[in-house]
Amino acid sequence: MARPDTGKKLASKKPPAATAAQLATAAQLATAAQLAAAADAAVDGSDAFTIIEFCRRHGISVQFFYKWKHEMPKQIRIGTRVLISKEAAARWRAEHEAAAEVEALTD
Predict the structure, then answer these.
(1) Of residues 4 and 81, which shows the higher confidence score?
(2) What pLDDT digit, counting tens, does each position of 23-46 carry?
(3) pLDDT in tens, 41-98
(4) CB of 35 within 8 A of CB of 56?
(5) Helices marked H in 60-107
(6) pLDDT score at 32
(7) What does the alpha-carbon distance between residue 83 and residue 74 come to, in Å, rounded to a whole number?
(8) Secondary structure in 3-state letters for 13-44
(9) How far is Cα 45 from Cα 92, in angstroms, rounded to an integer?
(10) How far apart are CA 95 and CA 72, in angstroms?
């Protein structure tokens, strides 16, 4: 059954254009969501972390990781993937905990 023509035109509702600030916020939220999804997808029984998983589990940003890459744990390359073994992460934590203790004693 066809709709009768009422003679009224439907107004097309166009969403307002997004501002640069809104787009930046959306990009940050997307990145945060990707980080959270990657960490949640990680299997606790795995023997290595991706860089995103390592950063999420250690409370640092990916940008910080790359800025201080020379101070981060040793990485393994498998094809195009870069992984950090749980052992390397544990050594890195132990070294930094020891350094923090020494620094606390000297202050």
Answers:
(1) 81
(2) 566 566 556 555 555 555 554 667
(3) 554 667 899 999 999 999 999 999 999 999 999 999 999 999 999 999 999 999 988 8
(4) yes
(5) 62-67, 86-106
(6) 58
(7) 9
(8) CCCCCCCHHHHHHHHHHHHHHHHHHHHHHCCC
(9) 20
(10) 11
Whether the CB-CB separation of 85 and 47 falls below 8 Å is answered with yes
- Who contacts 82 (Cβ-Cβ below 8 Å, separation ≥6)? 50, 51, 75, 76
DSSP state at residue 84: E
Residue 13 token pair = 């509702």
Domains assigned to the chain: 44-106 (1.10.10)
**Per-residue b or e along 72-97, where b marks 16 or more CB atoms closer than 10 Å to that residue's CB:** bbebeeeeeeebbeeebbeebeeeee
Nearest to 54 by CA among 22, 30, 76: 76
Q: Are 60 and 39 in contact (CB under 8 A)?
A: no
Task: Write down the residue that tokens 């107004």 correspond to.
Answer: 11
**3-state secondary structure string across 46-71:** CCEEEHHHHHHHHCCCHHHHHHCHHH
